[in-house]
Known about the structure:
Arp2/3 complex 21 kDa subunit ARPC3, two-stranded antiparallel ribbon, mainly alpha
Amino acid sequence: MNKTNYIVKVALLSVIAFVLTIFEFPIPFFPSFLKMGFGDLPALIGGFSLGPMAGVWIELLKNVLNFILKNDGTGGVGNLSNFLVGISFVLPASIIYIRNKNRKNAIIGMVIGIICMVVVGSFTNYFIIIPLYQKILPLDAIIAMAAKANPSIGDMKTYITYAVIPFNFIKALINSIITLIIYKKISPILHG
């Protein structure tokens, strides 16, 4: 694949990923600011078909477009969070799959990606994202918003335990299942 072809495919998948973020939605029992979406699908598909760095570029470009065109009121903190958890999912999954492209490696890669997304999401929220959000809202207000969705949330640790961990697990699992269903059907387009 030549460089121009690669750039066009990465750009196209990035735009598709951005468009998919427009349709994000809250899910019951989770804080409303944690939105379920399918913007990681094009990055995972791109990582599988074009290589791991394509997945990273797609995640980056999706979040840059999101920051510029869809202001979420977080001053870019939400985009940073989405980028960090997105690449923690897409990168390991596509590295494992690209070594030997078969269904077994795709599943193993996505399982490892799900685990990485949960772990990285937890650590980045605790040490980076929530401290950055506190420049916009005090921690008490963030926890109060989360507690409206789940009364078990009362502090930072319970927020991570009852919101961040299960949310990232569910989001990565659903994106993985959809990828398993559609990848082989659309991969000829990306390889052609």
